[in-house]
Design goal:
Length: about 200
């Protein structure tokens, strides 16, 4: 996956709490097992007024300019709650989102996002509210998410610090999922296996 070090993008404000994974990607679109093509169904029931997704809801933020090209999503508490479906992060990534900012996230959703290179930033409710107000007064508001320095920066240079566990941060910075992280030690693993074959051949 693509390493995440620093990213600047348009912020799309989604002013809703408890956005669940069925809202992010409804169940009828979960028929595929690869990660491609889910972006067109992201927030399907909010983006469209018909079942087939041919009529856009003009009031929904992602159907408005310049938010069609947003790459940072701003949300409220408990973002990503509900089922454990991996398709929700896949849909966000396929649409183009690299970062989601909210006061809290569901644990499984949080881990699924990290595994495909989406940075989830936890800020306080007060800080998130401040960012929502900035999006209201500055259409097309942009932020920079700097993972190397653990901070979110506005164009006016105001900074919001965040924390991330070391393992997740290391994987995101290197562009590694958990399998990729393990394969960094392939030579050591192979060496250990060869040693075992010699010292305890009955195991193989």
């Amino acid at each position: 996956m693509t390493p995440f070090t620093k990213h600047t993008g348009i912020v799309a404000p989604l002013d809703r709490a408890n956005v669940d994974t069925d809202c992010i990607i409804p169940k009828q679109f979960l028929r595929k097992v690869d990660r491609q093509g889910f972006g067109k169904h992201l927030f399907h029931e909010l983006r469209y007024t018909d079942y087939d997704g041919t009529k856009e809801n003009p009031d929904f933020i992602l159907n408005q300019e310049p938010y069609r090209k947003a790459t940072i999503l701003l949300g409220r508490d408990n973002f990503g709650c509900g089922s454990s479906r991996e398709h929700a992060p896949w849909a966000l990534a396929d649409f183009g989102f690299r970062c989601v900012i909210a006061p809290s996230f569901a644990d499984i959703f949080y881990n699924n996002c990290a595994k495909i290179g989406i940075l989830l930033v936890k800020l306080t409710s007060t800080e998130v509210e401040e960012l929502f107000q900035l999006t209201k007064t500055n259409p097309g508001f942009q932020l920079t998410a700097d993972l190397e320095q653990n901070k979110v920066i506005t164009l006016s240079k105001k900074e919001f610090m965040f924390t991330l566990d070391k393992f997740t941060q290391d994987c995101l910075l290197k562009g590694l999922d958990q399998i990729g992280w393990t394969m960094q030690y392939e030579k050591m693993i192979t060496g250990h296996e060869e040693k075992l074959k010699k010292e305890q051949p009955w195991l193989s």
